[in-house]
């Protein structure tokens, strides 16, 4: 049974299993091209990087032309003596699914003019399909490796942010203890200053003014310290809430990394 599968600006008529390459029609540019294609469970950047790593390891270099990734003179199998020019293109298989990409290839004779009309070498379509089936495990391993690297980096960043929050908590606790010590000392100083003022109540006016000024300053300092304590306590409470949220992020990244490693081992 055939069904329609949209590919970029065009569509494929496809049959066969989801994980296997197939031959269909690619509508790209002015003329539709027969092509081989396969669905891969990675985003387009990962698929293209895997493709380039695979063919680059075999000594082939890519160029870009007419929206294709072009490799010239590629031997599709052991019987291919002349080689074919391979025109690759990627597109999302489903725009709602980020990590699902269709990789298609149009095989052409070497140095074939693609300026107008169909340029596909139809005799190489089936072997191109097999080529994609053989390429898929490499892209799977490569893409999974990239995803693991990305997850490791994301986990590292999440853990660093968590450590920063823990360090901030330590600093805030230290600051809070210091402010509380200053407030306790302020109250002691206020009691002494009030006692001095009382003792000099009938004394020299200048002495009384200085004593009263000191009492007033200590009262002002008390208000400032209490304000700083409230603000620091609020920051500490916010920090603890942020830690709880960040711990969830760390656990999610850890679970994602473990899932990627399990995928790699299967």
Instruction: Please state how the strands of the largest beta sheet are arranged side by side.
Output: 3-4-8-7-6-5
| CATH class designation of the largest domain | Alpha Beta
**Kindly, what is the distance between the CA atoms of the first and last residues, rounded to a whole number of angstroms?**
31 Å
Strand portion = 15-25%
Largest sheet: 6 strands, antiparallel
Helical run tally: 3
Mean pLDDT rating:
87
Number of domains: 2
Low-confidence stretches: 1-18
Mind telling me which CATH architecture of the largest domain this is? Answer: 2-Layer Sandwich
Q: What is the share of helical residues?
A: 55-70%
Label the overall shape. Answer: rod-shaped
CATH-defined fold name of the largest domain: TATA-Binding Protein
Describe it for me?
The chain has 266 residues and is an alpha+beta fold. The chain is built from 3 helices and 8 strands. It has helices at residues 44-56, 125-199, 205-265; strands at 3-7, 10-14, 22-27, 32-40, 62-65, 68-74, 84-92, 101-108. The protein has a 6-stranded antiparallel β-sheet with strand order 3-4-8-7-6-5, covered by helices on one side. Residues 1-18 have low confidence and may be disordered.
């Amino acid at each position: 049974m055939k069904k329609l599968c949209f590919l970029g600006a065009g569509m494929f008529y496809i049959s066969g299993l989801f994980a296997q390459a197939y031959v269909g029609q690619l509508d790209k540019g002015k003329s539709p091209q027969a092509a081989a294609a396969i669905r891969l469970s990675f985003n387009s950047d990962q698929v293209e990087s895997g493709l380039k790593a695979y063919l680059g390891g075999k000594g082939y270099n890519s160029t870009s032309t007419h929206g294709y990734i072009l490799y010239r003179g590629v031997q599709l199998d052991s019987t291919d003596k002349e080689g074919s020019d391979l025109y690759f293109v990627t597109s999302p298989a489903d725009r709602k699914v980020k990590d699902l990409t269709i990789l298609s290839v149009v095989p052409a004779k070497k140095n074939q003019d693609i300026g107008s009309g169909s340029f596909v070498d139809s005799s190489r379509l089936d072997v191109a399909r097999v080529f994609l089936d053989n390429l898929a495990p490499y892209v799977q391993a490569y893409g999974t490796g990239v995803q693991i690297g990305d997850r490791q980096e994301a986990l590292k960043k999440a853990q660093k942010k968590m450590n920063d929050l823990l360090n901030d908590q330590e600093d805030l606790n230290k600051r809070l203890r210091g402010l509380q010590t200053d407030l306790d000392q302020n109250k002691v100083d206020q009691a002494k200053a009030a006692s001095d003022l009382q003792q000099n109540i009938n004394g020299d006016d200048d002495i009384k003014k200085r004593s009263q000024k000191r009492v007033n300053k200590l009262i002002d300092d008390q208000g400032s310290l209490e304000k700083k304590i409230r603000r620091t306590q609020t920051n500490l409470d916010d920090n603890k809430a942020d830690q709880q949220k960040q711990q969830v992020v760390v656990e999610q990244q850890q679970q994602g990394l473990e899932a990627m490693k399990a995928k790699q081992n299967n």
